[in-house]
Amino acid sequence: MPVIKSAKKKLRKDILREKRNELVRDALKKALKDVKKKASAETIKKAVKAADKAAKKNLIHKNKAARIKSRLSKLVKQTRNTTKSSKAKK
């Protein structure tokens, strides 16, 4: 444990930051899992938002966020095509 006052404060702040970062990271993971389970426009939108937040807080690199969003946008196109084709069959 730290002895110096400023080191104690830094430890407190680090613990708080760690918890906050964990919430954002977990939200991103959960959003991506939801997209894998069921790729709908709503789940994809939430995952894109979570990726942007994580990149903004420097939890993931901005290029990684861009890569995630790109892959999600491909899923959007696929879901649109499948819904159009299912409507056409009916």
Structural class of the helices, strands and pairings? mainly alpha
Rg, Å, rounded: 19 Å
What CATH architecture label applies? Up-down Bundle
Biggest pleated sheet:
none
CATH level 1 class label: Mainly Alpha
Mean pLDDT across all amino acids: 92
Q: Number of folding domains?
A: 1
Count of helical regions: 3
In short:
With 90 residues, the chain is mainly α. It has helices spanning 5-37, 41-56, 62-89. Helix content is 86%, strand content 0%.
Question: Could you characterize what this model shows?
Answer:
By secondary structure, the chain is mainly alpha-helical. The chain has helices at 5-37, 41-56, 62-89. The protein contains three helices and no strands. Helix 1 packs antiparallel against helix 2 and helix 2 runs antiparallel to helix 3 (62-89). It is elongated and about 70 Å long. The N and C termini lie far apart (68 Å).
